[in-house]
Amino acid sequence: MMVNQAFRYELDPNTTAREALARHAGTARFAYNWGLDLCRACLEAEERLPGGMTLHRLWMAPSGPRSRRSSSGAASYRPRLAAKRTVGTCP
Predict the structure, then answer these.
(1) Which of 88, 79, 85 is nearest to 59 (CA)?
(2) Angle subtended at Cα 81 by Cα 77 and Cα 85, rounded to the nearest 5 degrees
(3) Is residue 9 part of a domain?
(4) pTM of the model
(5) Looking at the 3D structure of the chain, how many domains does it have?
(6) Residue-number span of the structural domain to which 77 is assigned
(7) Other beta carbons less than 10 A from residue 83's beta carbon
(8) Which of 14, 45, 53, 62 is the most buried (most CB within 10 A)?
(9) What does the pLDDT look like over 35-88, one tens digit per residue?
(10) Within a domain: residue 7?
């Protein structure tokens, strides 16, 4: 019989690490919402849903929302505005 055991860890980040974790969570949330908006636009237009590689290519493109992030990684309002302009267009 195989026994599975779980471990629970508690994070106690300092201020710098806490800010980095918050930036990471905010970026992940933005990326998820961007992809979701793009897929919803494709469904409304009755077009094919983009695949994972297509979404990745769009995200990493020089004109994509990722390129509008500041170099320090701090969240800004520009990516949201840029994403709103591109919503409604399927790849």
Answers:
(1) 79
(2) 170
(3) no
(4) 0.62
(5) 1
(6) 16-86
(7) 19
(8) 45
(9) 999 999 999 998 999 888 988 888 888 877 776 554 444 444 444 444 554 555
(10) no
